[in-house]
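Protocol step 4 of 6: structure prediction from sequence.
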Amino acid sequence: METRQQEILNLVIKEYSETAEPVGSQILVEKYKLDISPAPVRMEMVELSEGGYLNQPYTSAGRVPTDKAYRFFVDQLPPGQSFRQ
């Protein structure tokens, strides 16, 4: 997985864990001050969806993390660090 995809996946997980709402590209760009427009973020989210990391509940919705995404996220945490830190 590319670095930008990892960053987007981590932000989707963070945002979804805070709101329990599907996460759209526009929210990520605005809230997290990403240095790219929503279109490239959407393209990365499509690739993450194709890889099984994100799911789109319905066509016009944002994306939600899958079990595979959470496993990837947890596996990349340094030993002893929790999600809330």
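Step 5 (inspection) to follow. The domain at 3-75 is CATH 1.10.10.10 (Arc Repressor Mutant, subunit A).
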